[in-house]
Design brief:
Oligomer: heterodimer
Largest interface: A-B, 43 and 41 residues
Number of helices of chain B: 4
Radius of gyration of chain A: 36 Å
Structural class of chain A: alpha+beta
Strand order of the largest sheet of chain B: 1-3-2
Mean pLDDT of chain A: 82
Low-confidence stretches of chain B: none
Strand content of chain B: 5-15%
Largest sheet of chain B: 3 strands, antiparallel
Radius of gyration of chain B: 15 Å
């Protein structure tokens, strides 16, 4: 490298640091590469001779780093140079090449300002892009179906459902479907079922949906490879053909392309045979959930007996409605066809009529997209609006800070104008500065969004259907860039206004001016606007926080801390002896005080209904739930009799026709008399009520009890359990592990889906509310932070400009306290105006989220009061902190400041 | 004002002018560094020289250098008449304004 060396000087053998030289030779794409390396080598040699090898090497590395760092700005310069070659006035604005370097140095000098701006942009953009990444998967992402707008969910409705928001799936029979096909031949229908599991090994099962042979044709989709054969849709054997999901194929089958024909089964021979793999983007058209995604599609076979039975309503029907047929007309024709079905067949008996399976009086055709997003659309829109507010707040904030900085720089700006720089040149320089800061903030914001998105799958409630996994993809990046462009326009426009006015006033002459209060309308609007937006968002946060607190203050009516729930799947051939065996095993685990099984869902927001006939003279009730229970369940729930007694373990085990009813049922069914001793009938079979128990929140923590009837599980054919409730003599968390181990060792055929304390299950039952609260409280806090930073920055910069004025005031006898009071008081009108404006915005905005609040008004005075108090405190603190610093200046020093 | 240039560009042009016919990367960098009182990167100097050459404010020629350059040539720069005018005008404006400042800025 160093060419001919003097052999008498061994130090001549020293070369510049190899890595730095190599990097420069490879990476440097700037001009005069050879000359640059030559210059550095020459100077390295000079320094080495003067100051030694170590110093020279350090110098060389530093030079290499600085040269390469400078290179990062080169692409922007090239673009600017290319634009500068264009003719016209606009081109002057585009001639950015000379502005990047000065902007960079200027920002480096104003380190605190730069860091503040980057922090504000990072905070607001990371939250906003995270929300957009999630919402994009709900509202905007195209569905993975051909002509997805034509796909509708055929929804027959009973009188109870008309006009309500209750939506049912799986309530159609084959005769219904045949009648619909005949009524609207232009439509194509596919019948499916959703929610079942098929074993694929010991204590392992796959969640499946069943589809008929027309499914792929109607939805306009196809398997990635493989597919069903015609004979797959015939009677089913123990091993069923299955199209597995892409995720299942990758995770469980190793992405093996030769997987077709592979059998996964348990010891009894029940299982699946892989017939194909579904595409990665496959989505089952059902209002399912993120976690309960379909792992396999199985062919649907309806037995001949059920095929002819109009009451065997268990199908979920999706159809393609061509655009040529108006929705209203199709709905009318289907409704008329359904009336024909009802007329042809005998009406349902009271026990069959649970409110959702007919008779149907109307058929609706909501689009599949609307049903997929029905639980999430409104809250997604609200989240998106909050994200937009936060970005707007950040823009105002940055405009305020940038405008204030321009006032500080008016002297420099005046000098540049005097040197010939035009207004466009100054604005261009500012735009470059802001673009650098916004760019840095945007990159950090997207990194932040990636981190936040990693936590999203755990935060999202089960019923939050996403059409894509949330990720920082091109769409999200495009939104971030668009937000930055808006911010850049607003901030540059505002700071240009401030700067041009300041420099026009003759900054050189007025540079030493003592008062620069800038009580302009614009600045007033910026502070007021920030406070207003922050208030609107903080109100959202306090409303949701209070709503969640109200939910958690509800008494579920049963034991919480010492009880755990185990969600289980029993093998197909299950009987009472098996269930008793499992429960006995659990009861023998040390610390267990009671254990019982429940033949229905627990805290899963499901409405199962009751088929007991209300007695003559019963009052109207809501949806009474019938719970089939084993011995031990009422003890595990810590339920006690408030009248009569609980059914005995012997009665429950033997399946005696006895019932316990909750207070609501007792009062509604037997008004004015005792329920104990009365009889309720199911299909004519009498059950005696032996006791009354308190009402419990059995569906979810936030759904008010509508009445429960407890009967022995053993009294019914095909007994099966979905959950076990186990109570302990100490904390449930500690006892669950031993229970799980005992179950795994003692009954391997029992599949344990999930196990959690009842407190956790209560939390899960209000997951949506917890998620909403997390989102809106997060936005409220972010808004508060951004507004506080904005006010603090503005006051700090104003205070710095007014050092001389403060000095004069102190010299004339003002106390530091009075100076602080003066500065804080100057902010008050803007804060007050902001509170008023924010109140107006929030009064209008909270109506959108009123439906998501738990039994409270969106105008709850406590939540509003808390928001106002918090915002006033934070604004005042943000104004006081920099004022305190300003009031402590030495008057003599202050007067010397130019 | 004839040509608008930045402060760093003005410093580089002045360093070129000061170097006469012998101004090249190392001497220019050292002169600018001495003028500014803090380290200046060689990459920034070369990028600026390249820009000034494209704008017709300097011209350059290459010639051989000492062995320590590893056989790489030196590139010598000198001002063009527009470059001289740019230095004169911009420096003149700066000194004129500096003279009017209430604070003394020159030693």
């Amino acid at each position: 490298m160093t060419g001919d060396r003097d052999p008498r000087d061994p130090r001549d053998a020293v070369e510049p640091p190899r890595l730095a030289a190599w990097l420069l030779s490879r990476v440097w794409r700037g001009p005069a590469g050879g000359e640059l390396l030559g210059d550095l080598a020459e100077e390295f040699d000079q320094i080495r001779r003067r100051r030694g090898v170590r110093q020279a090497r350090r110098w060389y590395r530093r030079q290499a780093f600085r040269s390469l760092a400078g290179l990062v700005l080169t692409p922007a310069r090239r673009v600017a140079l290319a634009l500068a070659a264009l003719p016209g006035a606009a081109v002057r604005f585009a001639r950015l090449s000379g502005d990047v370097g000065p902007a960079w140095r200027s920002l480096r000098r104003a380190r605190w300002y730069s860091l503040t701006v980057i922090a504000v942009v990072t905070l607001s953009l990371s939250l906003a892009t995270t929300v957009f990444a999630v919402v994009d998967g709900v509202l905007f992402k195209p569905l993975p179906f051909a002509d997805a707008d034509e796909l509708v969910q055929v929804t027959p409705e009973t009188p109870a459902q008309v006009g309500s928001t209750i939506m049912m799936a799986g309530n159609t029979s084959v005769p219904d479907l045949d009648a619909w096909r005949a009524a609207v031949p232009e439509m194509t229908f596919t019948a499916t079922t959703f929610g079942g599991s098929q074993p694929i090994g010991e204590a392992d099962a796959v969640r499946f949906a069943q589809v008929d042979a027309r499914f792929f044709e109607v939805t306009g989709t196809a398997p990635l490879f493989g597919g069903f054969r015609d004979e797959d849709f015939g009677p089913q054997g123990p091993v069923r053909s299955a199209l597995v999901s892409y995720a299942f194929w990758q995770a469980r089958l190793g992405g093996d392309p030769g997987v077709i024909g592979r059998v996964l089964a348990d010891r009894s021979g029940e299982g699946i045979r892989v017939a194909g793999v579904l595409p990665r983007e496959f989505l089952f058209p059902h209002f399912g959930s993120l976690r309960l995604t379909v792992e396999a599609l199985l062919p649907l076979y309806v037995e001949p007996g059920r095929r002819a039975n109009p009451r065997a309503r268990s199908l979920h029907v999706v159809a393609r409605l061509p655009r040529s047929v108006p929705v209203g007309e199709a709905e009318q024709r289907l409704t008329a066809a359904e009336a024909g079905v009802a007329a042809r067949f005998p009406p349902l008996s009271a026990t069959e009529r649970d409110g959702f399976r007919g008779p149907f009086v109307r058929v609706r055709l909501p689009t599949v997209r609307s049903t997929l997003t029905r639980n999430t659309r409104a809250v997604s829109m609200a989240g998106l609006a909050a994200a937009g507010f936060l970005v707007l707040l950040a823009c105002l904030n940055l405009a305020g800070l940038a405008g204030s900085r321009m006032l500080d720089r008016r002297r420099e700006l005046s000098m540049r104008r005097a040197l010939g720089a035009g207004g466009v040149d100054l604005v261009r320089g500012m735009a470059v500065e802001h673009a650098l800061l916004l760019g840095a903030g945007a990159v950090l914001g997207l990194v932040g969004a990636r981190v936040l998105l990693a936590a999203v799958p755990w935060l999202l409630p089960d019923d939050f259907t996403l059409l894509k996994a949330p990720a920082v993809d091109a769409r999200v990046a495009a939104v971030a860039v668009a937000a930055c462009a808006v911010a850049l326009t607003i901030v540059t426009a505002w700071s240009a206004r401030v700067a041009l006015r300041a420099s026009l006033r003759g900054g050189l002459a007025g540079a030493g001016g003592t008062t620069a209060r800038a009580r302009s309308l614009g600045r007033f609007a910026i502070v007021g606007g920030q406070v207003a937006l922050a208030l609107a968002m903080v109100v959202g946060g306090t409303l949701f926080a209070r709503s969640l607190a109200r939910v958690w203050s509800q008494d579920p009516g049963f034991g919480v801390d010492r009880t755990a729930v185990f969600f289980v799947d029993t093998p197909r051939a299950v009987d009472l002896a098996y269930i008793d065996g499992v429960l006995d095993l659990v009861r023998r685990v040390p610390g267990v005080t009671a254990a019982g099984g429940l033949g229905g869902p627990f805290l899963q927001r499901a409405i199962m209904g009751s088929s007991f006939e209300p007695p003559e003279g019963a009052r109207e009730t809501g949806d009474v739930e019938h719970l089939r229970v084993t011995a031990g369940l009422l003890d595990a729930l810590a339920l006690h009799a408030i009248d009569g007694r609980l059914p005995t373990p012997e009665e429950l085990s033997a399946g005696r026709p006895v019932l316990a009813v909750s207070r609501t049922v007792a009062e509604a069914y037997f008004p004015g008399r005792r329920a104990v001793g009365e009889t309720l009938r199911q299909d004519g079979r009498p059950f005696e009520i032996v006791g009354v128990v308190p009402d419990v929140r059995y569906r979810s923590l936030d759904s008010a009890p509508e009445g429960e009837i407890y009967s022995p599980l053993a009294a019914w054919p095909d007994p099966d359990i979905m959950n076990m409730l186990v109570s302990y003599d100490h904390d449930a968390v500690a006892g669950m592990g031993a229970t799980i181990r005992a179950l795994q060792a003692g009954v391997p055929s029992l599949r344990l889906r999930r196990a959690m304390t009842v407190r956790q299950a209560l939390g899960d039952s209000v997951q949506s509310r917890q998620f909403q609260a997390a989102v809106f409280v997060g936005f409220g806090l972010a808004a508060l932070t951004v507004a506080a930073v904005g006010i603090l920055g503005l006051v700090a910069m104003t205070a710095a400009r007014r050092t001389r004025e403060v000095g004069i005031r102190l010299t004339l006898g003002a106390t530091p306290t009075r100076v602080v009071r003066l500065m804080v008081r100057e902010q008050l009108p803007a804060v007050a105006a902001g509170l008023a404006g924010g109140t107006l915005v929030a009064v209008w905005g909270v109506r959108a989220v009123a439906a998501y609040l738990y039994e409270m008004s969106p105008y709850d005075w406590r939540a509003w009061g808390a928001a106002v108090v918090v915002l006033v405190l934070v604004s005042t603190a943000a104004a006081i902190v920099p004022s305190l610093g300003a009031s402590r200046v030495d008057p003599v020093q202050a007067l010397r400041v130019d | 004002m004839s040509t608008q240039i930045g402060v760093f560009e003005l410093l580089v042009l002045m360093a070129v002018a000061a170097g006469g016919d012998e101004a090249y990367g190392v001497s220019i960098r050292q002169a600018v560094e001495a003028g500014r009182g803090r380290e200046v990167s060689s990459g920034a100097v070369h990028t600026t020289l390249d820009r000034l050459e494209r704008r017709g404010l300097v011209t350059s020629r290459t010639a051989g250098g000492p062995p320590s350059r590893g056989g790489r040539p030196r590139r010598y720069y000198r001002l063009t008449p527009p470059g001289e005018a740019a230095v004169r005008d911009n420096y003149g404006a700066l000194s004129h304004l500096a003279g009017r400042l209430p604070v003394k800025v020159s030693s």
